[in-house]
Each structure stands twice: as C-alpha cells, then as structure tokens.
Amino acid sequence: MVSEITTTTENSATPENNFDVLPETLRQQYLKLMGVQTWFDPELLTSAAACPPPSAETVNHQQKLKTELKPAVKPEPVRADQKQTETIDALSATVKQCQLCELHTTRQCVVVGEGNVSADLMVISDAPVNDSVFSIEDKNMLQAMLQAIGLKLSSVYITSLVKCQPPAQCAPQTSEMICCDDHLSAQIKLVQPEVILVLGELACQQLLVSQKSLTDLRLRHHKHLGIPVYASYHPRSLLHSSETKRKVWADLLQINKLLSIQT
User: Residues 120, 124, 129, 130: what is their CA dihedral angle, to the nearest 10 degrees?
Assistant: First the structure.
C-alpha cells in the first residue's frame, strides 16, 4: 500500500506544485491508512479530472500573494558594544560643552578616553597630553606593561581624571579633578570594567580619596564604585628606572590574577 501511494504521488499534481486540490483517490488512501472512515463519491474524481489546470495569471496572482504575506525581515539586533559606543559618544558631546572649571578657557581639545568600550581593564591617569590620554612615549611604555601580562593596548579602555589638558603641562588642580568626577563616574558605569588600574601618585590619591603616598597605596586592595582598583606608577616613571619596572611588574601580576579569576 505504501508503494502504491508513492507511485500515485509521483504521477499526480500536488498543492505545493500548482496550488490545486489534492486528488480524491490519494486523499482516500491517506484516510484509509489513518483508519478514518469516510464516504467516497466517484463524481468527485470525474469533476476533479474535468477541472482545467490553473491559468498562468492565477498562478502569478497566488505567488504574488505569498510574497506579500511573507513576514517582514526583522532588523539585526544592536550589539552591546555598539550601544556602549553610542553612549560614550553622547558623554563625549556633553563633556565638550562642560564649563565647570577654568580649564575650559584654555583647552585646545577635549580627551574623554579611548580604547575598547567593553574592556575588562580600565586604565586611568591624571590628565591628557595634547589630544591623547598619554604621550606617544608613555603609550608605548604602557603597551609594553600590558603585553607583559598578555594584554593588548587595544583591548583596554584608557582615560584620565580630567578631560582637558592643563596649561603648560602642569598637574591638574584638586578642584579641576573634582569638577570632572561625574564625567569619570559616568565612564566607569558605561564601560563596567572588571578591574581599574590607576597610574601615578596624584591620580591614585584623588581616585582613592587618600593622602597616602603611592608606596603605601600599592599592593593593596581598593575599590571605587564597587570595582577593584590597583595603584601603580605612571609609565613615564618607568623610562629610566629598572627598580620601578620591577615594582610595576608586581602590580601587574595582581591584576592578571584577578582577571584570570573573573574569566
């Protein structure tokens, strides 16, 4: 019986091919196999055979209806990092309009931050240099520091306490850093890093609200906005000091250990 049904299917037009009615003989075979009792009218077979195949116009119309009734293609979802980038851009626009401190009167540009907005590690210094968070020399040193624990510079997010460069390369004033507190907090909440590395004694003292020296702040567990913070030396301090490099290596090992635990 199964082979007979197969033969009939191959020789008969199906609704899928020409949108016609299922042949009555085939329908009866299916119903019989399923144990469904039904009646059979021989005239149906005659009438079905007498029906002409659908015209080309009818087929085209049916195909057009199928096309029009297809569900609309859903837009691709926006990635999380794309949303964060758009939000960071919005923050940048706000910072560029900031006039909370005197730095806005002398600034040439605003440096909000750079790098991976979904980074596990955020690096914070005191103030930008020209149009970047770090000078080229300091950035190269920072890159070497990160490579020592298997990280790329492009994989982290770097920023500074103040977003405008102080005049004459001076260190930022406490009042200026306080005025940028909200901007920095917003960045941290947007990026949501697993660990923060703050570089330089001034930046460490300001972020950790402490008067202790960098020597005392290093190798200790701190938190800012609920995120672990480690204090270390600024890259410029490593350029001519092997002893400082050894100390920074110890700081980096702590960060590497914590990031390994998180992953």
Answer: 50
Note the pTM of the prediction, 2 decimals.
Answer: 0.69
Q: Which residues of 167-187 are buried (b: 16+ CB within 10 A; e: fewer)?
A: eeeeebeeebbebbeebbebb
Task: Identify the DSSP state of 133.
Answer: S
Task: Give the containing element (helix H, strand E) for 3.
Answer: helix 2-11
Exposure on the CB side of residue 199, measured as CA atoms within 13 A? 27
pLDDT digits (tens, 9 = 90+) for 61-104: 566 655 655 555 555 554 555 656 678 889 999 999 999 999 99
Closest Cα to residue 196, out of 142, 158, 238? 158
The domains located in the chain, with CATH, are: 2-67 (no CATH), 80-262 (3.40.470.10)
Is the distance from CB of 194 to CB of 259 less than 8 angstroms?
yes
E strand or H helix at 176, and its extent?
A: helix 174-179
Which residues, 6 or more positions from 49, have their beta carbon under 8 angstroms from its beta carbon? none
What CA–CA distance (Å, rounded) separates 28 from 49?
16
Give the relative orientation of helices 136-147 and 242-262 as an angle to the nearest 10 degrees: 60
CB atoms within 10 A of CB 48: 14
Cβ atoms of residues 163 and 253 within 8 Å: no
